[in-house]
Specification:
heterodimer, A: two-stranded antiparallel ribbon, 11 helices, 2 strands, globular, B: mainly alpha, ABC transporter involved in vitamin B12 uptake, BtuC, about 70% helix
Chain lengths: ~300, ~350
């Protein structure tokens, strides 16, 4: 195995890992507040990607590549944020206060409804996505970095830093942290619980849509069931890094991306997803609070 | 003391009707659908045992169908062993796989366990796709022999129809006996309050693993049956969607109810056939899954106890001794937060 080959796998792993980190945020923050795994997050990711795809294809008729892309991204982020908030209001809020398994199963139902509803509307076949950086590549040693990989990394990093700032330094971020620490106490302190919960869903869904757009362009394909595996990988990244923490999600995403690409490189690319699930089972076995979790939480 | 309670009467009546049904139905298509529904009933009942009675959210049931199916099919093709031996071995193989996964993952609780079992399902599927030397990969295993009984080889749908009924009866009776046994009571105690059960001396981890293995073994049997029935088995025979579909069946039927999974499985399993007149081709599958998702959300919001819970409320099905125990939801006590 040559050094160049390993370097190449590391580069792809870091780029895709940052996108996983963006998906992981959606799981991590929702779990932090409502203590349940939002299985519907993968469906939001897919819907966001389709919104961007269709609006971009439409806008390309009138505008050049970049302005149309930016408008499509904005539309998609806003659209899926609204979608995420609606999903919480319609399907999860009525089950609040019951067993969290009920909410989990409800999110599985939402995910089925949205994924296959979309498949019914647009058909199951993958659609090709236009390239953002056609032909742009940089050689380092024997490895190649594409423009898209750099773009993915930068966008994801900027968004994660902005999010960290938002959660730590704004009023609503403070409310979100208070609610995730103790929902009852936050309510007694006069916080309207619904606001931070909605904000969490909006932010998680928006970032998920961004990740979907990046991954859709990276692999040049969008299809209705793309949310299943991507969603589960985001969850794995969130768990690996320690659920509820933003830097943890980033590190978990990077670790998953690296592990997956190196493993796929050494074994066979057919095992890519199997490696991700093996990571999940190993983390659950040996370190269920996540590798980078500071405090040990006892209950999962 | 009523030794012939209403529930048994209903079941006996249903059994007689299903046994006599082929006298009136000759169409192989309808029989084919009925066998398929039978498969769903077994899968839903066995998954309900671990989800509803032991309270462990295991949603990777299709993985064990695949494991058992491949194990049995390979025995029949490569080593020319009889179907009946393969059937038992398929169940045993799934039992052992369940043991391995259970020992690794059953310390997790609730939705985490759900994600791990789903992930295991994907691992099994990817192994089946990639281990081309053993499984022939995505091309699948064709030419799986049909069962032979008293020197006669099964042909047509009818023998399979009776075989699946026999398997359903076996599944239902054994699960019912287990639920009412010491083992089943221990499982229900764990479901309702694991800490309290442990305080009463129930070794919860062992019971959970055993319940998980037993439930997986039924799935393995179904895999071998399916392989021999369709004479073909591939990684796509049972996949992620099917696992989720089984969870939907037991959610709608009533998690933790003995009879609930049967109407749940029949209802959801028959949905694609009922939708067939309205749409064509691949769209049926999408529409069916979307519809199932919608029904599931509505049920979970309005009727979390499912169909059976509803009918027990109204007194249609009498389950006097264990009624209160069985009516509780999967996890009736909210888990403690960290």
């Amino acid at each position: 195995m040559s050094f160049d080959f390993i370097l190449q796998q590391v580069i792809s792993g870091v780029a895709i890992g940052m996108a996983y980190a963006l998906i992981a945020i959606g799981y991590s923050m929702v779990y932090g507040i409502l203590k349940f795994i939002n299985f519907g997050h993968g469906a939001v990711y897919m819907v966001g990607t389709y919104v961007a795809y269709f609006s971009w294809r439409y806008l390309l008729n009138y505008l050049p590549l970049w302005p149309s892309f930016l408008i499509a991204v904005l539309l998609s982020i806003v659209g899926s944020a609204i979608f995420g908030v609606l999903m919480e209001k319609v399907a999860y809020k009525p089950t609040r206060g019951r067993s969290r398994l009920t909410t989990f199963m409800s999110s599985v139902g939402v995910s089925l409804l949205v994924t296959y509803g979309m498949e019914f509307l647009v058909g199951p076949e993958p659609r090709p996505v236009p390239a953002l950086f056609p032909g742009m590549r940089i050689e380092i040693g024997g490895a190649i970095i594409t423009g898209m990989q750099i773009f993915m990394f930068c966008i994801a990093l900027v968004m994660l830093i902005l999010l960290q700032w938002f959660v730590l330094h704004t009023r609503i971020g403070k409310a979100m942290r208070a609610t995730s620490e103790d929902m009852g106490a936050a309510y007694l302190m006069g916080i309207n619980i619904d606001v931070p919960i909605s904000a969490t869903f909006a932010i998680g869904s928006g970032l998920g849509a961004m990740a979907g757009i990046l991954i859709g362009i990276y692999y040049s394909a969008v299809y209705p069931t793309m949310g299943w595996i991507a969603g589960i990988k985001g969850f794995i990244a969130a768990v690996t890094g320690g659920i509820g923490s933003i830097p943890g999600a980033m590190l978990g995403g990077l670790l998953l991306g690296l592990g997956e690409n190196l493993g796929a490189g050494f074994l066979s690319s057919g095992y890519r997803d199997a490696i991700a699930f093996t990571v999940l089972i190993l983390v659950m076995l040996f370190r269920p609070t996540g590798i980078f979790a500071r405090e040990q939480r006892t209950s999962l | 003391m009523n030794w012939f309670p209403r529930r048994i009467r209903i079941l006996t009546l249903a059994l007689i009707v299903t046994l006599l049904l082929p006298l009136f139905i000759r169409s192989p298509y309808v029989l084919h659908v009925l066998v398929l529904l039978g498969i769903w009933v077994i899968l839903a009942e066995s998954n309900n045992f671990v989800v509803g009675f032991a309270g462990q959210l295991a949603i990777g049931h299709a993985a064990f169908v695949t494991l058992g199916g491949y194990a049995g099919a390979l025995l029949m093709i490569r080593y020319d062993l009889s179907f009946w031996f393969a059937l038992l071995f398929g169940g045993f193989f799934a039992f052992i796989s369940g043991l391995i996964l259970g020992l690794m993952s059953l310390r997790l609780r609730g939705d985490y366990l759900g994600m791990v079992t789903l992930g295991f399902g994907e691992i099994v599927r990817l192994l089946a796709v990639n281990l081309v030397g053993i499984t022939r990969g995505p091309m699948g295993l064709p030419g799986i022999p049909r069962p032979v009984i008293f020197g006669c080889r099964f042909s047509g749908q009818l023998p399979f129809y009776y075989l699946v009924i026999a398997l359903i009866v076996l599944t239902h009776l054994s699960i019912e006996r287990m639920v009412f046994s010491r083992f089943g009571r221990a499982c229900i105690a764990i479901r309702d309050d694991e800490v309290a059960a442990q305080a009463m001396g129930v070794k919860s981890f062992g019971y959970k693993v055993l319940a998980f293995c037993i439930s997986s073994a039924y799935a393995g049997l179904v895999g071998v049956f399916y392989a021999s029935w369709t004479t073909f088995f591939s990684p796509d025979s049972f996949k992620l969607d099917d696992s989720i579909m089984i969870s939907v069946m037991i959610t709608l039927g009533g998690i933790g109810s003995l009879l609930g999974p049967i109407p749940g499985a029949i209802g959801i399993g028959a949905l694609p056939e009922l939708l067939r007149p309205f749409t064509t081709g691949a769209r049926i599958a999408s529409l069916r899954m979307a519809g199932v998702g919608l029904i599931m959300v509505i049920f979970l919001i309005l009727r979390p106890q499912g169909i059976a819970g509803m009918s027990i409320d109204k007194g249609y099905i009498s389950l006097k001794p264990l009624r209160k125990l069985l009516l509780r939801k999967v996890v009736s006590v909210e888990e403690e937060e960290p």
